[in-house]
Amino acid sequence: MEKILINGGKKLKGKINISGSKNSTLPILFATLLTDDQATITNIPSLTDVDTTIMFLNFIGKNIIKRGNTIKTYPSVNKYKHIAPYDLVRKMRASILVMGPLLSRFRKVCISLPGGCTIGARPIDIHLNAFQKMGAKITTENGYVKTFVRNRLKGTMINFKFPSVGATENVMLSAVLANGDTIISNAATEPEIEDLANVLNKMGSKIIGAGTKKIIIKGVNKLHGFDHAVIPDRIEAATYIIAAAITKGEITLQKVLPQHLRIIIDKLKKCGLYITETENTIFAKWIKELNPQNIKTEVYPGFPTDVQAQWMVLMCLLKGKTSIIEENIFENRFMHVAELQRFGADIIINGKTVKINGVEKFSGAPVMVSDLRAGAALVLAGLAAEGQTIISRIYHLKRGYDMLEKKLKQLGADIRKI
Length: 418
Ligand code: UD1
What we know:
- By secondary structure, this protein is α/β, with parallel strands linked by helices.
- The chain is 31% helix and 25% strand.
- The chain has helices at 22-31, 48-60, 86-89, 99-106, 125-133, 165-175, 191-202, 234-246, 262-271, 308-316, 336-343, 372-384, 395-398, 404-410, and strands spanning 4-7, 13-17, 39-42, 63-67, 70-74, 83-84, 108-112, 137-141, 144-148, 157-159, 181-185, 206-208, 214-218, 226-229, 250-254, 274-277, 281-285, 295-296, 322-326, 346-350, 353-357, 366-368, 388-392, 414-417.
- Helix 1 (22-31) runs parallel beside helix 2 (48-60), helix 5 (125-133) runs parallel beside helix 6 (165-175) and helix 8 runs parallel beside helix 10 (308-316).
- The termini are close together.
């Protein structure tokens, strides 16, 4: 199995382009199930989660081709299947997003319970309760959820107990073809929700309020094709800004939307990192010893859980300074802690918080990736550490970081696959 080898201690310096957002690309790909017309989607990142989704959609009956960073869909040659088997679904939790489009367009779907990162229980009750309110009948048998609706789904009022990103997307993907209006209260407000709403509106739906806590979706009878460029990946961007801070370097990010990174930029400025921005670039430079900042992960626009592990590495390296991180979104998202301790980190876990006592330096170590963002944290730790780090189980990284080694090499890192 491939591993990553890093000889740490190099200051990263230079410019890189940020790729298209993984978490926008996946729901947009599932939206193509809502029509047989052609769709052209650009700024697609090269990631295994994207390949898995294409394979999944092709299996269901879509005719999808990816060339470079562009995906085109063509009229289907086969009849659509309404089943999502275990082998495809277990690889990626976002597979659950197949439910909304298939249910609204074909009135039935049978899906294996989803997999994904091992960062907590991650139930799907919010998705299923919403479909039930829209008139769907749901049964669970042998690890599969069977859902069907006799006539069209019906528009209704849905109040989420928690603003789940996936459930907001799934309800949008189903309500667009429902009979009547659907109103989601306590909806997720992440930028990826707005990107999906923009696509659905280009397809002929009428969605108002995406990006706020109340989304109104007016059901229509038919949707059509679209052209769309995916928004930049804010989590990838945050990871590279932290890489600049951690290696005392200076990095310019291009093709990025700074407004999606407001809390990260503000927190890093409070730490003492020098940051300037234009409409679509961010320049980050280490100019002095940084101070710690406590963080609590929250839904957008709060501090993203997907940057918690990377932030922890930065806090670990602030010598003699103490900080606290509180994880409020997933209940098992500290699996990187044990691996960071192998570099010499001083971290104490207490329930959903960790206390970090900054150390002078990390020393390179053999470590293992447990999930996507934990993997990013280990790469950052390796870049900052003295000596050699060997990271195994790197397939997790390819799920979410487009051209990771290439971009880091471009910035001067000594990194390669072995
Ligand atoms: C999405 C992102 C993921 C990010 C997460 C939180 C994608 C492909 N993935 O995941 O990178 O970390 O948002 O920002 O966009 N929950 C329930 N019941 C449900 C659904 C969710 O209890 O039916 C809980 C989950 O267990 C979790 C929390 O809600 O504790 C957040 O989950 P959710 O917002 O749904 O995250 P995802 O859409 O899976």
